[in-house]
Automatic annotation (TrEMBL):
<dbReference type="GO" id="GO:0003700">
    <property type="term" value="F:DNA-binding transcription factor activity"/>
</dbReference>
<keyword id="KW-0238">DNA-binding</keyword>
<feature type="domain" description="HTH lacI-type">
    <location>
        <begin position="3"/>
        <end position="57"/>
    </location>
</feature>
<dbReference type="InterPro" id="IPR028082">
    <property type="entry name" value="Peripla_BP_I"/>
</dbReference>
<protein>
    <submittedName>
        <fullName>LacI family transcriptional regulator</fullName>
    </submittedName>
</protein>
<dbReference type="Pfam" id="PF13377">
    <property type="entry name" value="Peripla_BP_3"/>
</dbReference>
<dbReference type="InterPro" id="IPR046335">
    <property type="entry name" value="LacI/GalR-like_sensor"/>
</dbReference>
<dbReference type="InterPro" id="IPR000843">
    <property type="entry name" value="HTH_LacI"/>
</dbReference>
<keyword id="KW-0805">Transcription regulation</keyword>
<dbReference type="InterPro" id="IPR010982">
    <property type="entry name" value="Lambda_DNA-bd_dom_sf"/>
</dbReference>
<dbReference type="Pfam" id="PF00356">
    <property type="entry name" value="LacI"/>
</dbReference>
<feature type="compositionally biased region" description="Basic residues">
    <location>
        <begin position="341"/>
        <end position="350"/>
    </location>
</feature>
<keyword id="KW-0804">Transcription</keyword>
<feature type="region of interest" description="Disordered">
    <location>
        <begin position="329"/>
        <end position="350"/>
    </location>
</feature>
<dbReference type="GO" id="GO:0000976">
    <property type="term" value="F:transcription cis-regulatory region binding"/>
</dbReference>
Length: 350
């Protein structure tokens, strides 16, 4: 017969309530007691019954990651997911992925429907959901706990989750490009609903201003966080009469698209064009030349956001907004600006 909670309690010499508190990661359990209970559970090969656990604690022991469906295949989201799963595993929680279409007419209703259907104990939100003030206020009205990742919106109270100074990081990346001699630096911006677009564009402008370089609207193109958006943005910028010698893309996926288009035109990176990204996803390290980018610790951010959410679920006064550091990752895709103006590269016939 499978071991029961009563067997664990008897073996550890504690009450069943204490065993339950240990497996629910509740506070105020002495470390020696926790270790004794966990050792007894391991010796008996005990596995908590999820259904019974949920009924006893009036919880689902489930948290949900809500993200925009078009971003489902991005490296950024995958790293967030891995980090979140680590935190959930440590706290014996299950994680549910809820890709929803932010552009739909009733995305708030879609979030509410997901909550009603699956009854998660809390949500982890990434932009653009994390920046939707109406959604956040609705969750507050419903009493739904949530944590945000890289949110820009302010809703009148201290939030729980993780954040990184994307504006400052972007400005430092532009300073690096300027130090290499680049004076015409293009930017493939992120998608309009995403808060990161505004911060990275603002950082791009900050970097130009500090270097004494004018802001040229012709060097900024609307894009997105996809490989295809990077290709489209690069085509626009490289077709200019005076194309840039460097391009800063809003994320690594779009930066790889920029590199692809440059190669299609016979340009050498970084001899003819330097390329910069943002996120430091595994893709940035796997491509050649290696992509110069901003290291945003996406996996850590997913883990920390989930940890803060779980702390809030256990104690309404717990949880905080954790500021995480960034770091420039200088790789082979960035180099000195060309010493002589190069002719405008033409798109190859497709």
């Amino acid at each position: 017969m499978p071991a029961r909670i009563e067997d664990v309690a008897a073996t550890a010499g504690v009450s069943m309530k204490t065993v339950s508190r240990v497996f629910n990661n509740e506070p105020n359990v002495r470390e020696k007691t926790r270790a004794r209970v966990e050792a007894a559970a391991k010796a008996l090969n005990y596995r908590p019954n999820p259904s019974a656990r949920g009924l006893a604690g009036n919880r689902s022991y489930l948290v949900s990651l809500v993200f925009d469906d078009p971003a489902a295949g991005s490296s950024y989201i995958m790293e967030i997911i891995v980090g979140m799963l680590v935190a959930c595993e440590q706290s014996r929680y299950s994680a549910m992925l809820r890709p929803l279409e932010y552009a739909s007419a009733d995305h708030i209703g879609a979030v509410e429907d997901s909550i009603a259907r699956y009854r998660p104990d809390g949500l982890v939100l990434v932009p653009p959901f994390a920046d939707d003030v109406k959604l956040l206020r609705r969750l507050d009205e419903l009493g739904v706990r949530y944590a945000t990742i890289s949110a820009k919106a302010k809703i009148g109270h201290e939030r729980v989750g993780t954040i990184l100074d994307e504006r400052k990081a972007s400005a430092e990346m532009i300073a690096h490009a300027v130090a290499l001699g680049h004076r015409r630096i293009g930017h493939v911006a992120g998608p309009l609903p995403h808060g990161g677009r505004a911060w990275r564009l603002a950082g791009y402008r900050d970097g130009l201003r500090r270097a004494g370089l004018p802001y040229d609207e012709a060097l900024v193109v609307d894009g997105g966080f996809s490989f295809e958006a990077g290709i489209a943005g690069a085509r626009h910028l490289l077709d200019l009469d005076e194309p840039p010698t460097a391009i800063f893309a809003a994320n690594d996926d779009s930066a790889c698209g920029v590199m692809h288009e440059a190669f299609e035109r016979g340009l050498a990176i970084p001899r003819d064009l330097s390329v910069f990204g943002f996120d430091d996803t595994p893709t940035s390290r796997h491509v050649w030349p290696g992509l110069t980018t901003v290291r945003q610790p996406c996996r850590d951010m997913g883990r920390i956001a989930a940890e803060q959410l779980l702390a809030l679920i256990r104690d309404p006064t717990a949880g905080e907004l954790v500021h995480v550091p960034y770091e420039l990752q200088i790789r082979q895709s960035s180099g000195p600006a060309p010493s002589r103006p190069r002719p405008r590269p033409r798109s190859r016939t497709r």
